[in-house]
Amino acid sequence: MVATPLGNLGDITARALAVLGEVELIASEDTRRTGTLLRHFGITTPLFALHEHNERQVTEQLLGRLREGQRLALVSDAGTPLLSDPGFHLVRAAHDIGITVSPVPGPSAVTAALSAAGLPTDRFVFEGFLPSRKGARRERLQALAGEPRTLVFFEAPHRIVETLSDMAQAFGAERLATVARELTKTFETVRRAPLAELARWVAADPDQQRGELVLVVEGAPARAEALDENARHVIEVLAEALPPAQAAALAARITGLRKNLLYDHAVQSRNRPEEE
Prior knowledge:
five-stranded mixed β-sheet, three-stranded parallel β-sheet, 11 helices, elongated
């Protein structure tokens, strides 16, 4: 599994070049694009087309070569294979028959966009491409509106204006997001702004509606957790007979709420002046 440059050929690793030159065959999503890469580095390894339309049909043929002891490299158009790219069926089948699958890490549009987005990266979720149909896309975005982790999407140029507008509607106009376009290429653009502002900016500039696009969207703000009347009654009764920490631990088991939240209320109820 060999990662290849997103655009700037200088990003390829020495290990990737060595592997591509040593294997017997390179399975490629687009043999013309990969051929350009190989010619640039003087690599003459034969290419084999493996894409979303033929992967299931050619997997057994490639497994046969692997069974014979041949070494195979799998590459996508750009970046790290299998991230919204073909190859999953082949990799799964190789695992199933005991073939060793080894990653040769390198460029990835997902991590490249995250690193430059200016949004939290400690927890994120990769959503790939949203549905192309408007109704399904909006439904999916609504389902993600409460997701607290940073969201990463790929999007096609001809849908970027509609998608940003739909995101502003589903997530809120002020939710921060970053458009990362043509990463590592000549016309690379990385811009962070509220979703509504990004939607207007992209709609007004046709140049921003071209090329490879990654969208990084801030996660939903954490919802304030509150105690309902029943939970308050439980912790207050327990706090009359038990130390706050014990009362909170028991109340958490009863109510399913966070122990720290219940502990704070127990302390407050103990310190509350008694009504005359």
